[in-house]
TrEMBL record:
NAD(+) binds at residues 180-187, 203, 271. Pfam families: Pyr_redox_2 (PF07992), Pyr_redox_dim (PF02852). It comes from the Bacteria. FAD binds at residues 51, 143-145, 312, 318-321. Its cofactor is FAD. The active site is a redox-active disulfide bond. The active site is at residue 444. This is Dihydrolipoyl dehydrogenase. It catalyses: N(6)-[(R)-dihydrolipoyl]-L-lysyl-[protein] + NAD(+) = N(6)-[(R)-lipoyl]-L-lysyl-[protein] + NADH + H(+). Belongs to the class-I pyridine nucleotide-disulfide oxidoreductase family.
Length: 466
């Protein structure tokens, strides 16, 4: 039986980063993945393919709605849906190819199959052609998550689908109802609405992207509505059924008023659940919490002291970069290093257009906890760069401690917010003050100046530029 220093189960952003860092630190490392390609949800059916389609459809929408004003005349704009999806598949394949390269470069053994614990110290790997066993000094579980559903809604993967099936459709859908106005809901709604699908979002909460600062969701709602997405808030979906060449969805609002809609597809985007099927945890000391996540301590160590767990399967923010941080954390912790992750400084990004990005405390959190703060808010419509590019929707908002100037939260909806948020992370991670942030030079004209202006306003000075 082969013996390794570290065996990583699952090759998503948690697993592949944990394996690479382990190998870099000199450990004999094996990674086991049940699918043919490495990369997990994020690379194969999550972050990467959605961003590829969001980019393609954004170009399409610009060609349809903005090129004319830029002085670019096109005779006819035509959608080649198959080519759009083919390009998406190529982007995914380049990324999974990159991971193969990294595994080889770092001398990481790669095994294909479903890994399950036989007992606390032995792993069995089963694939179509063989079963083998191995042992390791340490195990890192990074088996991720799968889409959740709600009572009364059965995902048949044909008409009642999840994001995974939506990423491999053969033809442009004519209509789609999306259950859930969270991150997947609004990203998927953007993709399909831009290419002419009639999209309706049914959301239980009273605003979109409910876990982020509420002002962001409210602003995003206005923008998406203007683009033609039918957004219905305060609606609890309780049943779906298949009908001829489509499906039906039933919902009611908080006063009990009933509604129903027919669509070619119903996309269920109501969150994701931890994935531990086939892991054989019942043969180990590893314990789950009441929601099915693997229980870990502050070192991401499970109830079995040599088995760690990271990423979506342990809960918290279900984000690729959170899983990556934990992958590095665990490899370095095994190596005896003292590490810390500031979960409040992990940014969240929604890749609609404009993008939405956030780090730190929301206004709702500060209010609820009686923490005083100053607000600096600057609209993109007042940015010269935004005017030049016709991307004038949104704002940058910073929340700052009134006494010491500590940056408590940065919330942006606007062009390139996904990249701008990095400076908010730096400001918070290194406890840079709002004054420090406005006294540095920002290139003109750039979207980043909206943040400089927001910091100036939060510090009691007026805006100084346009
Ligand atoms: P996963 O990526 O889920 O990987 C787990 C892997 O383990 C899988 O490959 C699985 O096959 C394998 N596995 C499971 N059980 C076994 C077993 N017993 N044996 C062997 N292998 C096993 N996050 C972002 O930060 N940015 C985004 O833009 C973003 N977009 C997303 C879009 C969509 C549509 C979805 C669904 C998710 C998106 N996410 C995004 C979330 C992100 O994909 C996850 O947070 C991330 O993939 C979690 O990484 P992980 O390593 O924990 O697990
Ligand atoms: P989510 O938790 O973001 O949103 C689910 C939404 O469904 C919530 O707003 C909830 O109120 C609503 N809902 C639940 N039950 C409902 C019902 N019966 N009727 C109507 N609405 C209902 O989950 P998601 O959008 O499925 O995304 C799953 C995970 O994937 C998220 O945790 C997210 O972090 C991750 N993800 C991240 C990105 C990104 O980083 N850009 C993109 C996609 C997914």
């Amino acid at each position: 039986m082969e013996h390794y220093d570290i065996a990583v189960i699952g090759s998503g952003p948690g697993g592949y980063v944990a394996a690479i860092r382990s190998a870099q630190l000199g450990y004999k490392t094996v990674i086991i993945e049940k699918y043919d390609t490495l990369g997990g949800t994020c690379t194969n059916v999550g972050c990467i393919p959605t961003k590829a389609l969001l980019d393609s459809t954004h170009h399409y929408a610009e060609a349809e709605h903005q090129f004319n004003e830029h002085g670019i005349k096109l005779d006819k704009i035509e959608l080649d849906f198959s080519q759009m999806y083919r390009r998406k598949a190529e982007v995914v394949s380049k990324n999974t190819g990159g991971l193969n390269f990294l595994m080889n470069k770092n001398n990481i053994t790669r095994l294909k199959g479903t890994a399950g614990f036989v007992n606390n110290s032995t792993l069995k790997i089963v694939n179509e052609s063989e079963t083998k066993q191995l042992t390791a000094k340490y195990y890192i579980i990074a088996t991720g998550s799968k889409p959740s559903s709600i009572p009364g809604v059965e995902i048949d993967k044909k008409r009642i689908i999840t994001s995974t099936e939506a990423l491999s459709l053969q033809e442009k859908p004519e209509s789609m109802v999306i259950i859930g106005g969270g991150v997947i809901g609004v990203e998927m709604a953007s993709i399909f609405n831009r290419i002419g699908t009639k999209v309706t979002i049914l959301e239980y909460a009273d605003h979109l992207i409910a876990t982020m600062d509420h002002e962001l969701g409210k602003n995003l709602q206005k923008i998406l509505k203007k683009e033609g997405i039918d957004i219905r808030l305060n609606q609890a979906v309780y049943r779906t059924e298949n009908v001829d060449s489509g499906a039906k969805v039933f919902f009611k609002d908080k006063n009990g008023a009933e509604g129903e809609l027919d669509a070619e597809y119903i996309l269920v985007a109501v969150g994701r659940s931890p994935y531990v099927k086939g892991l054989g945890l019942e043969n180990t000391d590893v314990q789950l919490d009441e929601r099915g996540f693997i229980k870990v301590d502050e070192n991401r160590r499970t109830s079995a002291s040599h088995i760690y767990a990271i990423g979506d399967v342990i809960g918290g923010a279900m984000l690729a970069h959170k899983a990556e941080e934990e992958g590095v954390f665990v490899a370095e912790t095994i190596n005896g290093q003292k590490r810390h992750i500031h979960y409040n400084r992990i940014p969240s990004v929604v890749y609609t257009w404009p993008e939405v990005a956030s780090v730190g405390y929301t206004e709702e959190y500060l209010k609820k906890n009686n923490i005083t703060y100053n607000i600096g808010k600057f609209p993109f419509s007042a940015s010269a760069r935004a005017r030049a590019s016709m991307d004038m929707e949104g704002f940058a908002k910073v929340l700052v401690d009134p006494k010491y100037g500590e940056v408590l939260g940065v919330h942006i909806i606007g062009a390139r917010a996904a990249d701008l948020i990095a400076q908010g992370v730096i400001a918070q991670e290194y406890e840079v003050t709002a004054e420090d942030m406005f006294r540095i030079s920002y290139a003109h004209p750039t979207y980043s100046e909206t943040l400089k202006e927001a910091y100036l306003i939060a510090s009691g000075q007026g805006a100084i530029n346009i």
